[in-house]
Design a protein that fits this description.
Rossmann fold
């Protein structure tokens, strides 16, 4: 699954799933733009790991919820590489709150990053992505479950799944695929923060394998969807969750 010569943006790539995706795309030969919002030191660590393994990468700061910074991110890619082949819209936030506790700021922040940021990153890709390109957005397997405190987060990801379906026919005439990955519970800071050991154990028992996913499990699926083996797959949501729901 060679990606040699291709340029990839991975948003939110300084840690967790995004970090692993960036590393594996680089291992497959892509030149990788490691986007981050605030974790500059961690993003540079990802870049250094890629370079030490013989790859090529650069860290670019941008808060994808802000149009001016999103435009800056894509302009930087134009300047450095002159092309774009792969966009992984991995950046996201999750705040688990009972409906009575959700604030307007929390609601707006989750929609601004998870939905607005993803949508307008796709718009920027439409303006410059090479024919035969690939876009992968991030949903969650929680959209297929009924879990308390996940209402806003699940709503943002449901919106991402629908925008992906509708955009498939806009990107299709340029031979650009666009799909969603919907991970199950993955052992990252985003998932584990604020959860008791008992709650985490209950999530382990919800899938077929009795374990949490690892970032590599998701990155492996990303590699498949960015390869030439997946050129007939578009507008779909792939649930990478070990049999959860």
């Amino acid at each position: 699954m060679s990606l040699r010569g291709k340029v990839a943006i991975v948003t939110g790539a300084s840690r967790g799933i995004g970090r692993q995706i960036a590393i594996q795309l680089a291992q497959a030969g892509a030149r990788v733009v490691v986007n981050y919002s605030a974790s500059g030191g961690e993003a540079e660590d990802v870049v250094q790991a890629i370079i030490e393994a013989g790859g090529e990468a650069v860290a670019v700061q941008a808060d994808i919820s802000k149009m001016s910074e999103l435009e800056k991110l894509f302009a930087e890619v134009d300047s450095r590489f002159g092309r774009l082949d792969i966009l992984i819209n991995n950046a996201g936030v999750m705040t688990c709150e009972a409906v009575a506790e959700v604030t307007e700021d929390s609601f707006d922040r989750q929609f601004a990053i998870n939905v607005k940021g993803t949508y307008f990153a796709c718009q920027q890709a439409m303006k410059r992505m090479a024919e035969g390109g690939t876009i992968i957005n991030f949903s969650t397997s929680v959209t297929g479950a009924m879990l308390p405190t996940y209402s806003v987060y699940a709503a943002t990801k449901g919106a991402v799944e629908q925008m992906t379906r509708q955009l498939a026919k806009e990107f299709g005439p340029r031979d650009i695929t666009i799909n969603c990955i919907a991970p199950g519970q993955v052992a990252t800071d985003l998932f584990l923060t604020g959860k008791s050991d008992e709650l985490v154990d209950s999530f382990r028992r919800m899938n077929a394998f009795g374990r949490l996913g690892e970032p590599e499990d998701i990155a492996n699926a990303i590699e498949l969807l960015t390869s030439d083996k997946a050129r007939w797959i578009t507008g779909q949501t792939l649930r990478v969750n070990g049999g959860f729901n």
